[in-house]
Amino acid sequence: MSILPNHHHHPAAIGRHYRRRSHRVYAAATTPTKTRPKLEKLTINPTPLITPPKLDDPSLKSTWSHRAWVATGCTTVIASLAASLIGSIDSHIWLEPILSGFVGYLFADLGSGVYHWGIDNYGDASTPVFGSQIDAFQGHHKWPWTIIKRQFANNLHALARVTTYTVLPIDLIWHDQPVAMGFVGVASGCIMFSQQFHAWAHGTKSKLPPLVVALQDGGVLVSRSQHSAHHRPPYNNNYCIVSGVWNRFLDENKVFEALEMVVFFKSGRRPRSWSEPNSDWTESTVESPAMAD
Ligand SMILES: [Zn+2]
Ligand SMILES: [Zn+2]
Q1: Do 40 and 179 sit in the same domain of this protein?
Q2: Which ligand is nearest to the CA of 239?
Q3: Both 136 and 162 in a single domain?
Q4: What is the pLDDT of residues 81-134, one digit of tens each?
Q5: 91 and 193 together in one domain
Q6: Tally of CB atoms within 10 A around 9
Q7: Which of 16, 203, 249, 250 is deepest in the core (most CB within 10 A)?
Q8: Ligand 1 centroid to 99 CA: how many Å?
Q9: Whole domain around residue 24: which residue ranges?
Q10: Does the pTM exceed 0.85?
Q11: How far is the CA of 27 from the centre of ligand 2 (A)?
């Protein structure tokens, strides 16, 4: 939000600059109203892909609205899991809710891969609904190290908001269905926290909590080595960021490449991964200030 390439271009400053110019030049040629929309567009753009954010950049910090969204997202996830647990106790059915929770965990990884593939390959910052996510992921490919400098709620709030909107109505309708609630609770929880698992996949082993390293090495959470392959050429694999269990299957069977062909023949849209290498995808040569994996 604040990584404007030219901080000194405050509207007032532009106004002064314009007034000075307007003594000499025709006023109609560069009116302040003409420059304003451009400024507004820059201001709402969350990560202009021009310069990497600095380590203390406010765009990496959590705001109270980020924290509020994460809190509501967690509340809806916990409500689903509690409804599943209470329903299981009441009905003495245990196996099905546990199995459906496991299916939810597998589904979340697949869902994270499909979503990540979609926003990596199609659309741009101006795309409705997904624009800010697309822009953020493009920024992530250029400066992958920034994800570990991003504060927790800042990293999770977008998915927490989607989780709240999606899961809250489901909780209200199916709260007495322990099997459905088991699936919804685990799947939405894993999807909401996928950006945290993703951030851990960018971490350095020695700096991560030992439990996280154990879960990554055990294949419960997406591993550092698997995800680092996503950030290397040809930039068209390992999209899943929950557990990564689907990555090998999807990549070996060229599932996303098949989907890209379908999209191309149906709509003529080319995925970004076909035009590799280009500067939109490749990691910036601006060095990470602190880390190497
Ligand atoms: Zn990506
Ligand atoms: Zn990444």
Answers
A1: no
A2: 1
A3: yes
A4: 999 999 999 999 999 999 999 999 999 999 999 999 999 999 999 999 889 889
A5: yes
A6: 15
A7: 250
A8: 30
A9: 1-44
A10: no
A11: 48
Q: How many domains does the chain have?
A: 2
Distance 190 CA to ligand 2 centre (A): 17
The secondary structure element, H or E, covering residue 164 is helix 152-174
DSSP codes joined into one string, 18-54: HHHHHTTS-GGGG-HHHHHHHHHHHHH-S--TTSPPP
User: Which residues make Cβ contacts (< 8 Å) with residue 30, sequence separation at least 6?
Assistant: 18, 21, 22
Q: Give the alpha-carbon dihedral of 161, 79, 182, 93, to 10 degrees.
A: -170
What letter does residue 55 receive in the DSSP assignment?
Answer: T
d(CA 160, CA 261): 32
CA-based nearest residue to 159, from 178, 182, 187, 138:
187
Mean pLDDT by 10 residues, the chain (293 residues): 37 37 37 41 46 78 96 98 96 94 98 96 92 90 91 95 96 95 98 97 96 97 96 93 97 97 95 73 52 39
Shared domain for 121 and 255, answered yes or no, is: yes
74 vs 192: CA distance, rounded Å: 8
Name the closest ligand to CA 120. 1
Total residues found in the chain within this entry: 293
Contact 260, 271 (CB under 8 A): yes
pLDDT at 26: 37
- Looking at residue 165, its amino acid is Y
**Per the structure block, which two tokens stand in for 263?**
């999209």
Measured in Å, residue 117 CA sits from the centre of ligand 1 at 7
For ligand 2, the distance from its centroid to the CA atom of residue 198, given in whole angstroms, is 6
Whether 52 is in a domain gets the answer no
Residue 202 lies inside a defined structural domain of this protein: yes
Measured in Å, residue 52 CA sits from the centre of ligand 2 at 15
Looking at residue 283, its pLDDT comes to 64
Confidence (pLDDT) at 47? 45
